[in-house]
Amino acid sequence: MVDVVLGSYYPGDSVVHRLDARVKLLLVLALLVLVLLAQAVLELVLLAAFITSIVLSARIPLLTVLKAVLPLCFLLLFPLVFNALFTPTGAPLFSWGVLSVTDEGLTRAALFSSRLFLLFVTATTLTLTTSPITLCDATAALLSPFERVGLPVGEIAMVAGIALRFIPNLVEDYGVIRKAQLARGARFARGGPIARVKSVPSVLVPLFATALRQAEDLAQAMESRCYHGAERTHYHELKIARRDLFAAGATAIIGAALVMLKVLL
After folding, report:
1. Comparing C-alpha atoms, which of 141, 169, 178 is closest to residue 156?
2. Has residue 119 got a pLDDT over 70?
3. Structural domain boundaries of the chain?
4. Of 24, 119, 143, 209, which one's alpha carbon is 20 to 30 angstroms from that of 185?
5. Phi–psi pair at 150, nearest 5 degrees
């Protein structure tokens, strides 16, 4: 988890890296909607193939993507268990008291977990191929029309960028603090459940203290430089290129193919 986490940026010069961040963000949102609307196995297979092609085009090792998604995979257990045990329809495969596992329940659990996994991979690919600063600028550019109604777009984008940047820092600090406590004799993997719960504050307390100290230092540095998110200037201006139109067209074709599959099936 210390090597690659959600929010980390994987430097590169691939086509996906060079896409306009605004277009990339909109296309990722479109893909997330398509994944959520997919119901059939064939639709998920088509989306999985398209998302895999994006990852390969970004020249990011699949192991790197899996490492980034791994901390989120525990969230797959909840819909997997819930759908498998609490789906009343279908042929029963296993029963234990009031709980019953049916073939339809297993199918729904697999489809729901597959959708969540594709969502994680898509969001992770966005953060791996887009630096936090660029993603912050893209968010501000897309939300700029709402400035007319008083929405603090600059501040929102700044907070989002800082939050993304702090995730890898927190994970790195967690690793350092955990190793320091182990060197002092802490045993996190020994003893019963109560003993393991009692050992958690020895990591969480210094971790929160470190995070608050870093946040205070960052706030003081921004104030000393008179920095305000709404008044930023940009050295690199975002521009739409031909590759952005090609990526939008490919996503539109995938969306049309999914609509055709829904009509035919």
Report:
1. 141
2. yes
3. 1-130+238-265, 152-232
4. 209
5. 90, 10
